[in-house]
Amino acid sequence: MTLELFCGIVRVVLCCVSSFMASSTTPTLPLAFPQRHHSVSHRQVLFFAKFSNKVSLSSSVASKRSCKSKCFYAKVQNALNEEAVETQSSELEEDTQSTPSSSKLVLVVGGSGGVGQLVVASLLQQNIKSRLILRNPEKATELFGEQDKEKLQVFKGDTRKQEDLDPSIFEGVTHVICCTGTTAFPSRRWDDDNTPERVDWVGLKNLVSALPSSVKRVVLVSSIGVTKFNELPWSIMNLFGVLKYKKMGEDFLRNSGLPFTIIRPGRLTDGPYTSYDLNTLLKATAGQRRAVLIGQGDKLVGEASRIVVAEACVQALDLEVTENQVYEVNSVEGEGPGNEAKKWQELFEAANSR
After folding, report:
1. Which Pfam families does the UniProt entry name for this protein (predicted)?
2. Domain annotation covers residue 26
3. What is the spatial distance between Cα 184 and Cα 310, in angstroms, rounded to a whole number?
């Protein structure tokens, strides 16, 4: 509210107070006004103007001042109280609309990995309930802090071990995002039998086999080049079978009968983040490479920001256009879709039409 508008309101109120002086009882201002003066609306100003115009301050009606003052006071108090209730109801409705509740319960597998942690951060930011399967549940607190258990649920489990996938883990799950993965070449991450075969093939097969038929969508993060693992240069990447096993996992999901979306990113950039701070994840940016290229047919070659890939997974959950589709995703310089659902839908639709 501007200073000029506030001063105008004060002048009207002072006029009202002066008209009450003839009364034996000193009046008080309507309760609604002092409580809400910081957000007086244009409609409230009109209420003051409307009723103040009905009060004559001329000497010819001075004898009737007390009666009119009481009537004026009652009218203004009723009008302002009604306006306050209406405004409070409107504000409550706006607050509810700004943070809509979600009926989804998204199971995130690989939620502590480079893409997975960004997926979880995006879901938390959008007030979407999440459930994680982690080999080490303590990592959830390190990454995402203390969260309401209704908003973020954590189960201990390992997709490489079929016996770990108890049916209780999947109760109520409506959507699934699988971001599991390991390195293409032998590294310390292969310790404890964490090889591409065990993660990208056995683990995914166990997961998909355990999912209930009621799941509305399974989003899988795979890789570009999976259909060309016997061709150069992809055959070099596939020396230890990573692309072959990812393709086997894709095919198993396709043939499962579950609605799916497969995201094949280019070479991953940005992160993984190891600061263990949800605020850092929510503030992460893809630098200048925010624009998104989406293709089909395993034709795209390039890089993909983990931030972009994570958002592509979240956006694909509910889009009908992405059901039973496979997309390659790259990041390029320029302004991107961010988390705007309409822009993502347009990108997916454009890829389908090519």
Report:
1. NAD_binding_10 (PF13460)
2. no
3. 20
pLDDT in tens, 324-349: 999 999 988 888 888 889 999 999 99
Question: What tokens does 197 get?
Answer: 């075969």
* Separation between Cα atoms, residue 102 and residue 122, nearest integer Å: 14
Q: Number of structural domains, the chain?
A: 1
What CATH number has the domain bearing residue 186? Answer: 3.40.50.720
Rounded alpha-carbon distances, angstroms, from residue 258 to 66, 208, 215, 226, 353: 78, 9, 7, 21, 23
Which positions ≥6 away from 126 have C-beta within 8 Å? 102, 314, 339
Token pair of 258 as six digits: 């579950």
Range name among 44-48, 111-115, 300-304 with the lowest pLDDT average: 44-48
DSSP letter, residue 192: T
Nearest 5°: the CA angle 104, 127, 172 is 25
In a domain, 300, yes or no: yes
The answer to whether the beta carbons of residues 114 and 272 sit under 8 Å apart is yes
66 inside domain = no
Mean pLDDT of the region 252-261: 98
pLDDT for the residue 321:
95
Instruction: Quote the distance between the C-alpha of residue 232 and its chain's center.
Output: 40
β-sheet bridge partners, residue 220: 178, 262
pLDDT digits (tens, 9 = 90+) for 283-302: 666 566 678 999 999 998 88
CA distance 140 to 135: 10
Domain membership of residue 1 (yes or no) is: no
The parent domain of residue 306 ranges over 101-353
**Contact by Cβ (8 Å): 353, 327:** no
Strand extents, DSSP E, 190-324: 217-221, 260-265, 267-269, 291-295, 303-305
Q: Dihedral sign, CA of 28, 31, 35, 41?
A: negative
The dihedral of CA 133, 216, 292, 254: what is its sign?
Answer: positive
CB 187 within 8 Å of CB 237: no
Tokens 């310089």 identify what position?
A: 333
